[in-house]
Amino acid sequence: MTEHTVSAYENELRGLAQRVAEMGGLTEKQIVGSIDSLIRSDLDLARQVRAVDPQIDALQREIEEVGILVIAKRQPMAIDLREIVGALRIASDLERIADLAKNIAKRVIAMNGTLPLAKVTGGFDAMARLALERVKRVLDAYAQRDVDAALDVWKADGDIDALYNSLFRELLTYMLEDPRNIGSCTHLLFCAKNLERIGDHATNIAETIHYMVKGVPLADERPKLDTTTMAAVGL
Amino acid sequence: MTEHTVSAYENELRGLAQRVAEMGGLTEKQIVGSIDSLIRSDLDLARQVRAVDPQIDALQREIEEVGILVIAKRQPMAIDLREIVGALRIASDLERIADLAKNIAKRVIAMNGTLPLAKVTGGFDAMARLALERVKRVLDAYAQRDVDAALDVWKADGDIDALYNSLFRELLTYMLEDPRNIGSCTHLLFCAKNLERIGDHATNIAETIHYMVKGVPLADERPKLDTTTMAAVGL
């Protein structure tokens, strides 16, 4: 292989990682936008979040296409192959995270300007901040190929589950207290579930980083607050 | 390329498609098991569904691994490349379908033997049958590489959304009628959402089949009963 070819190949790999980072940045913005639109009942912002989503889908398709072509063209060694497969997996998780943010925005639109229960906005804010922080930290770990930082994200999965469970119980209480809350609380419990799932995808990305760097999957069961989780109606 | 090599390559492609079909069969069983466990409040069956899920995850990882290796080793032509990328995408959707079935089973376990509202089991049965039929039909379309059959599945997406919306409204009514129903109805509305999402993944698979055979993505917006969907609290 000539030096020119090697360098073109390295550029391809770097380009792929850059696109994943770009997708990550957009996805973070979508999380922020969706939760701000929820807390402030901001329909315009919610519509904006919904409108941006196709860009993220397109980025994922592009990453998949480029990644597969590089594999077919370069027949990469094991470590580069993991790099590319990792990019494809992370792009897939980011697409799903963005989709969950979009679904929150869609619920804000469906609630049509009804402010969510003021009592629970604090809980949503806390949960969203935790979810966002996990996504940010795992994307930093990806940028640095830092397995330890990825493992930190992976281990902290229980935090967001605990917040979700408590928010969920709270929402149920308000539904029981006053049946007129049932409609909006139903929307809110799906939103809370979406935030919890965003956290799960951050955990998936942490697992992918481990595989990319170490070459073996994280075999252990993911840390879940199982007792709380199974007992709560929210699962 | 010698004849021997071509034949080994063809075997690899065939083996990949067979694994996807196997995964599809297991996934169908998981849908049936999860919904039967829900309707009959059968905790043993629910636990069985939960226990099978890791096998399906392992199959997906295996399909991804084999597919990527074939791409790297064989540098396939465009049509074969689409065949392999299609197998990876379908395996990813099947994994998510199986995950949604597992989540229904986990809710059955969390409900711990409380029979769901008898009034809604019919609705769940109808919705589950529709979801299962869509998965079956799209897997048949994959086996036959039949774009028209895949497009039929793709177009019929609205049916399951309509059933979901009506089941959702019904569940809300029972919550409003008697607050003691709120706990179980909350479980059931997540189960209904999971069945709706199983239908969405069948639609994704139909799109993948179109891409595999035709080489271009289905660009149009997916058919959704948008007016109903946005109006309903269930989204």
TrEMBL record, chains A, B:
Its family remark reads: Belongs to the PhoU family.
Q: How does it assemble?
A: Homodimer.
**Annotated Pfam families:** PhoU
GO BP of this protein: intracellular phosphate ion homeostasis; negative regulation of phosphate metabolic process; phosphate ion transport
Entry function: Plays a role in the regulation of phosphate uptake.
Keywords carried by this UniProt record:
Cytoplasm, Phosphate transport, Transport
Q: Which species is this UniProt entry from?
A: Phreatobacter cathodiphilus
| Protein origin, superkingdom | Bacteria
Where it sits in the cell: the answer is: Cytoplasm
Cite the PhoU domain residue spans from the record.
21-108, 126-208
> Main localization of the protein?
cytoplasm
Please state what the protein is called: Phosphate-specific transport system accessory protein PhoU
Q: Which GO terms describe its cellular component?
A: cytoplasm
Which InterPro entries does this chain map to?
Answer: PhoU, PhoU-like_sf, PhoU_dom
